[in-house]
Amino acid sequence: MTDLSVDTPTRALARPGGATWRDYVALLKPRVMTLVVFSGVAGLLVAPGALHPVLALTAILCIAIGAGAAGAINMWYDRDIDAIMARTRSRPIVLGRIAPTAALEFGVILAVFAVMIMGLAVNWVAAAILAIATLFYVFVYTIWLKRRTPQNIVIGGAAGAFPPLIGWAAVTGDVGWGGLVLFALIFFWTPPHFWALALYRSGEYAKAGVPMLPVVAGARATKWQMLIYSLVLVPIAILPMLLGIGGWFYGVGAVLLSLVFVLCCIRVLTEDGKATNWRAAKLTFGYSIFYLFALFALLIVDHAPAGVGI
To answer: Domain limits at 262?
Structure first.
C-alpha cells in the first residue's frame, strides 16, 4: 500500500476549512459537466415531440446537477489517489479546503434533489435514468471497476453515455432507438478518448495503483484498442442519419469527423511515445473532445429547435 503520510496535500485533509463557492463548483467537475450537459441538450432537442422551454431548462439543470453530484462523490471516494496524481492534486478535498464528509453530503443531497425535481417537474422515466446514471458512476465505475480492472473505462463509460438518453426521455417519456444510438455513440467514444489520456499519464496511474489499460497491457495493446474503437465509431456515428434523427448535413460531417478520429488513432499507433513525449496521444485526446462536441452540434443544427416548443 502506498504511504501517503509524507504527501503535503494529503496531510491537508486533516485540516479542512476555508472553502469558497469556487471550491464547491470545482467539486462538480465543471469541465466534464460541460460535455455532459451539451450531449443532454442534444438528446432533448432531437427527440420526437415537444417540451415546454421551462421544462426543457429544468431537465437540463437536473442533468447538470446530477452529473456534478456524481463528480463530487467521486472526488470523495478517490481523494487518496487524487493526492498522488499531478492532474488531480489541486482538487479541493486534497487541498483540505473541503472536508471529505462535507463533499459526500453535498454530492448525495444534490443527487437526490436532481432526481426528485426531474421526476416531479418533467417525468419519472427521465428521473429513473438519471438515478441509474448517478448510481452507475458511483458504485459500478468509481467504487467497483476503477481500481480493479483495465476494463474500467469500457464498462464504466456507460455512466457518461446516459445524458442524451435522459434528454430524449425527458421529451418522449420513454427510451427510443434514437436515444439508444446517442448512448452508444458516447459509450464507444469513451475508451479511445480516455485511453489517449491514459497513455501519457500512465506513470501517474501506475503510481496510484489504478489498472488503466496502458499500465496493465502496455502502450502497444492500448493503441490497437484505440484504433479498433475508432473504427467501430464510424458506422455508429452515421446511424442518427439513417434513423432520421439527423440529415445529410449531419451525416457528411459525422463521416469526416470520424475518419479524422481514425487517422488520429493511426498516428498514435505509429508514433513512438517516448521519442515524442506522447504528442500524438495528447493531440488525439484534445481532438476526441472536439469530435463529440462537433457531432452533437451538427445534430442540433440539423434538427433543432423542433424539440422545444410552447
So the answer is: 18-303
